[in-house]
Description:
The protein is α+β, with helices and mostly antiparallel strands. Helix content is about 40%, strand content about 25%.
Amino acid sequence: MPEVLFREEILNGESVAIIYDSITKTMFHVKGNGGAIWKLLDGRRTIRMVSEDLARASPGLDESDALADVTRFVVQLGEQRLIRFAYEV
């Protein structure tokens, strides 16, 4: 979605992902794994693929917890209309 911009910043010594919706002029600050998940959401990977990649890149995070994190974050992004969902048929 070209109207949604993403960048990473250091705020108060902490890495924060910033997602900006240029249509609604709304800014979201995302901490934790949110920035990594956002970067993995390329329109080709499934939620399961994203969670597997996240678990591999995050020591101490197992795949079931990664799947829960990714699913929760994707739902939140969808509720804010920051992403569109694609379904395989």
